[in-house]
Amino acid sequence: xxxxWFGEKxxxxxxxxxxxxxxxxxxxxxxxxxxxxxxxKDQLFEPVSPYTSLTNMRKETAEQMGxxxxxxxxxxxSDGPLANLGIGAINPGETAITIGTSGAIRQFSSEPLxxxxxxxxxxxxxxDSWITGGPTNNGGIVLKWVQDLLSTExxxxxxxxxxxxxxxxxxxxxxxLFMPYLNGERAPFWDAKxxxxxxxxxxxHQKQHLIRASMEGVIYSIYHIGHVLERLGNxxxxxxxxxGFARSSLWLQMLADTFGKPVKVPESHQSSAWGAAWVALCxxxxxxxxxIKQSIxxxxxxxxxxxxxxxxxxxxxxxxxxxxxxKDTFHRLS
Length: 334
Prior knowledge:
alpha+beta
């Protein structure tokens, strides 16, 4: 779009890093990666700061958009760092958790956080900040699958009905676990052959247990990635929630209870857009990134239930070993 609008062949650091061809230490295309991919720098756009501002939009494009062609357009970045920024999770110990169709957990860091296990991502945002975290393939799509599974020809089970059913079950779903790998899994396994699985089914388990266990499984998946971030030196003091799941008070409570940490929820679920607008202010009016904390309307803060936290800790201790135990089975089924 930038090329079509301005004729400029440039790309911001975070989008460049998403190609896997970018050196996040030196902020330039990586020669070894280019060689491996049989590419040259001439085939790629020039990496630039997210604060880069462009004017002189092509006249016909500006006319179609109904704006002045000299309106500054700021590159900003990819949705991950912008979501962290837009929700205010920018300092050490502040963790952004976004769950829509899929999900992710992310933190800003002052240096790249990489290790040989390659369980999470770490990519550049500005010249002195990086985003570290991991994505899960299976977020809200899990609840949609359960909705389709339990609805009948004559009655579509609404999300509100599902939530009310899940609330009738205590934390831990009476020792029913759900591995939410319906679409394989990215972090921390990066295994397209992983499968979804209910573990611990017994005759007394009913649909309300299936619903709650599925919701808890999505949170366990995020929590699993969070453990990897801790191994690399990050810690979680306050969680910031965004995405569609942030509209569910039950899901947010599960998040707070699993981590044992408070969860802050903004008024707007569109944190990436809020972050993008703030980067534009930084570029055009010399605002600072950290100043955004005074400009994010917050809706609520959810405190953890420590008794539920203990239950989730005991069950997660079982959950986190299930993938390795079932990996060969998943691959044989594929």
